[in-house]
């Protein structure tokens, strides 16, 4: 009887331990009390992603009784600049949204600050949900170069750069939606002649440097993109594509397509100026779609794709810091954001889902947004973003293109400014 009695005690102890876990007792740090999932992301509450992640938090808490989500909204620039320091401290969150690419997630993976989640990705089937094109920015090799190796994140939405336009202003000038760079240039000439600055641009942050990249892409191919983004070959910053991008952007400033004052304009102020009807065109990312849908009241608006290759990829992704105290909860939260319900919520709020449920979209405009991404992804037209290849490259690119706007640097000087940190970084990745 003693053996049976001892077994019963062990069984009772196991049952008690299981009950404590289910009830959420015992924090990730080993202290008594309810468990807490510490979550950071930088999506505004009115954005498509902000709406979707808020719903995901509600679902997480309802399915994890006794667990509280401690959410902190961080600025994109804030996380971009402080992540390496914060993630290497006791203040690291359990899961956070982070930028993708060699210079950000790739760098942190190489520094050992992110958890290798390859086994979890396979176990939960996220690799089956995400297309090969989308997986590129989630996997990094030992050098921190994207496209192969271990999984260090899960993309949670998709995005691409496109042009939003004011239909009323186009109609007033008798301008059709452009489908080529030549047609876009002709349209902007007509606006300038009418005393209107065509482009809403943010030069103090994005997207001015993205516009220059878009122009370079119009003369590039995927081999060019891979050499620049994935270090598959040498990069000449004075080749025809880069030269065209810088010279044409500078020319756009001279022609009045881009205001010289835009050098000091932040992305937020750019978006507000477009929503106020001050400019007929805004070339920026799909992440603005939900904001525009909610904020534009006084005119009709639409969007069109940039011809050819386009800056875009999977969007930002969930990463789990190596120092996370609640990795199991982090994985559960990521799983909820990948569910059809949350992906549909994101889509219908104006975002681009990475996992398409096949259910009908909430409006024709949202359907167009999603279908355009399928067109770009299916046609292998996504070219990532210009600031990805090197740490700190975002600030370098913003500064270089600001100088093109103010006229304090020539196109060649601006490209030299881009070349230097890129080449320096190659030495750090063994190239």
From TrEMBL:
InterPro entries: Bact_solute-bd_prot1, SBP. It comes from the Bacteria. Pfam families: SBP_bac_1 (PF01547). Coiled coil: none annotated. Residues 1-23 form the signal peptide. Keywords: Signal. This is Raffinose/stachyose/melibiose transport system substrate-binding protein.
């Amino acid at each position: 009887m003693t053996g049976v009695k001892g077994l019963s005690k062990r069984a009772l102890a196991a049952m008690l331990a299981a009950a404590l876990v289910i009830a959420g007792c015992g924090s990730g740090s080993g202290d008594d009390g309810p468990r807490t999932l510490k979550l950071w992301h930088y999506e505004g509450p009115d954005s498509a992603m902000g709406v979707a992640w808020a719903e995901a938090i509600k679902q997480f808490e309802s399915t994890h009784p006794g667990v509280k989500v401690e959410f902190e909204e961080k600025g994109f620039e804030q996380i971009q600049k402080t992540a390496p320091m914060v993630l290497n401290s006791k203040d690291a969150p359990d899961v956070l949204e982070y930028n993708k690419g060699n210079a950000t997630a790739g760098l942190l993976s190489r520094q050992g600050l992110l958890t290798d989640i390859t086994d979890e990705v396979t176990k939960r089937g996220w690799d089956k949900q995400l297309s090969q094109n989308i997986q590129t920015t989630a996997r990094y090799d030992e050098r921190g170069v994207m496209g192969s190796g271990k999984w260090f994140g899960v993309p949670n939405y998709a995005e691409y750069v496109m042009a939003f336009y004011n239909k009323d202003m186009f109609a007033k000038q008798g301008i059709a939606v452009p489908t080529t760079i030549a047609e876009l240039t002709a349209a902007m000439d007509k606006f300038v002649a009418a005393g209107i600055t065509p482009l809403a641009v943010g030069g103090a942050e994005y997207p001015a440097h993205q516009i220059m990249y878009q122009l370079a892409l119009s003369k590039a191919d995927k081999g060019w993109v891979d050499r620049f983004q994935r270090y598959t070959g040498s990069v000449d910053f004075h080749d025809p594509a880069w030269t065209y991008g810088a010279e044409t952007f500078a020319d756009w400033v001279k022609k009045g397509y881009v205001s010289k004052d835009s050098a000091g304009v932040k992305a937020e102020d750019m978006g507000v100026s477009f929503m106020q009807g001050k400019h007929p065109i805004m070339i920026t990312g799909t992440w603005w779609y939900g904001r525009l849908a909610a904020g534009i009241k006084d005119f009709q608006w639409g969007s069109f794709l940039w011809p050819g290759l386009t800056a875009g990829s999977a969007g930002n992704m969930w990463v789990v810091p190596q120092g996370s105290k609640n990795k199991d909860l982090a994985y559960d939260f990521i799983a909820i954001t990948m569910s059809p319900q949350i992906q549909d919520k994101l889509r219908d709020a104006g975002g681009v889902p990475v996992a398409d449920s096949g259910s009908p979209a909430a409006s024709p405009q949202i359907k167009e947004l999603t279908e355009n991404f399928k067109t770009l992804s299916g046609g292998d037209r996504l070219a990532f973003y210009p600031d990805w290849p090197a740490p700190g490259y975002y600030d370098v690119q913003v500064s270089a293109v600001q100088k093109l706007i103010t006229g304090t640097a020539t196109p060649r000087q601006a490209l030299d400014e881009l070349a230097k940190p890129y080449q320096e970084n190659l030495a750090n990745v063994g190239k």
